[in-house]
Amino acid sequence: MNDLEARIRQALAIRADQTPVAEREWVGQSLLEEPAAGRSAGRVGTGRAGRRQLALGFATVLAAVATLAAGLGASGWRLDEHRNLSLTDQPTGKGFGGGCGGYTALRHAREAEGLRLLPAWLPSGQHITYASARADLLERETCSQLPTALVLVDHVEGDRSRIERAARLTGPIFGPFKAYNGPVQEPAEVRGVLGAVLFFTTAGLSPDRPADRLELYWTEPDGSSWILSATHVQKEELVRMAEGLVLDGTGEGPPAEAPNPPAGYEVTWQLPQRPEPLPDEEPWWTAHTNQREGASRISVAATRQVVSRPAIGLATAGVSQSVQLLEVRGHPAVFLPGQLTWDESPGVQVRLTGNQDLATLVRVAESLEQVPPDDPRIRNPDGHEFRWLLLPVAGVLAAVTAVLFRRLRRRTAPAEQTS
To answer: What pTM was estimated for this model as a whole?
Structure first.
């Protein structure tokens, strides 16, 4: 007998102890035999015993539903345990089928080892109101991995904390590129194959304005597909940049190299090896504060990435806002207005968001500390909310069962007396 069965049996026993005596005696009749004299040919199940069997069956169904509800509540299931998810912070993926859509499930904080970060300092008037662990459940069969293979950065002259232009290569993606027919795409011949360029501006996709960011898509002869995104470049420059890459989508070493970056660029990230197959889930840790007047809540998100997307890859987002590079907790970090992101350790990325100035976000970040899984600020999926919600439901079902029983018994009482 598994744990759920044991809990259901226990709930059934408790419910039996709390059921009115008359109902317990009625339900306790495990065998209802209809006297042979009370039957007539072709009317099996009719008459007094038939009505009692019908009533018993209906009431038993209701009782079973109530018991199952109580059992599930006792076993820790939650109404909000699963909800839809959508992976973000990856290239647009136009032209590639599939996606990483799935569900996210609450997890106990002990499963977020190395991710449980909470701040020891917050601005006056703010405090942690929510903290929990979760897991993104991935649909591996349809998920197109979009790892960051290379990041190239062109710093502002004389200020290496600021970025003038940036480029990010995503791949290898194991699936053919399919042409996307739209007004913002142009065909492009690259590396001996036909690809396409998509144009992006600060006002969204528009063919009528100079593009702030371009994305070049193509599929290599070995079947691996790639996306090269860059800010503040022309189409011809982007194609030349792609031509200068050394790609190996099926080998064991680095899948991409840039031995001769364009003038002004330097390689700031290189994927060391071809991505491993996706696991079943990606662990996350999230926490946020209350809102206060004049400031939004501050949120912390940490994940152990299953697809490599380093913080420096966010540099290609700097088309309408400045990108600033700095050091946080001893690690390189990227600051966009309202967002501070860094790689806390290999594979672990942390993001701090809120409409605070940079100095405030840095102070909060520096105060982050690992907390134990039983920290009182953490919400763990212990099922309490679900259990208390189900108890009234179980009570209502039990009451309906009792009322139906009494009504049916009153209707059958005259027939029992005359028989």
So the answer is: 0.66
